[in-house]
């Protein structure tokens, strides 16, 4: 199994919580085939772990989740 782990250290606990909660619907539905996603939140640190049996699915999941995180942060800046 191939694994990608991303750890994000935010300025505030609120930012970390916002990003985590914005990904919640995607994680619950797990629309990306052949992948398993786990997240953890501890103070100002958000950790994303993506696992897949094949590299192409892992890459697709990484791209999607990183884009969703970027979108959540951009929306927060706009509001």
Helices and strands, with pairings:
Elements: E1 2-9, H1 13-29, E2 35-42, E3 45-52, H2 55-78
Antiparallel strand pairs: 1-3, 2-3
Gross morphology is: globular
- Helical segment tally? 2
Major sheet: arrangement of strands: 1-3-2
CATH superfamily: Alpha-D-phosphohexomutase, C-terminal domain
- What is the CATH top level name? Alpha Beta
CATH topology: TATA-Binding Protein
Give the integer mean of the pLDDT values. 91
Helix content: 40-55%
Q: What is the second-level CATH architecture?
A: 2-Layer Sandwich
Rg (C-alpha, Å): 12 Å
Q: Care to count the β-strands?
A: 3
- Main sheet attributes: strand count, strand direction, barrel closure: 3 strands, antiparallel
Overall domain count:
1
Q: CA-to-CA gap between the ends? A: 39 Å
Give, in order, the helices and strands. Answer: EHEEH
User: What low-confidence regions span 5 or more consecutive residues with pLDDT below 50?
Assistant: none
- Name the structural class: alpha+beta
Fold and architecture overview:
The protein is of the alpha+beta class and 79 residues long. The chain has one domain: TATA-Binding Protein (2-Layer Sandwich), CATH 3.30.310.50. Helix content is 52%, strand content 30%. It contains 2 helices and 3 strands; from the N terminus they run βαββα. It has helices at residues 13-29, 55-78, and strands at residues 2-9, 35-42, 45-52. It has a 3-stranded antiparallel sheet with strand order 1-3-2. A hairpin with a 2-residue loop joins strand 2 (35-42) and strand 3. Helix 1 (13-29) crosses helix 2. The chain starts with a strand and ends with a helix. 14% of the residues are buried. The mean pLDDT is 91.
């Amino acid at each position: 199994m191939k694994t990608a782990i991303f750890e994000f250290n935010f300025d505030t606990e609120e930012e970390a919580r916002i990003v985590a909660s914005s990904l919640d619907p995607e994680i619950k539905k797990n629309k990306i085939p052949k992948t398993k996603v786990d997240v953890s939140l501890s103070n100002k640190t958000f950790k994303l772990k993506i696992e897949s049996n094949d590299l192409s699915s892992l890459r697709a999941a990484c791209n999607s989740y990183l884009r969703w995180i970027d979108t959540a942060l951009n929306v927060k800046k706009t509001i």
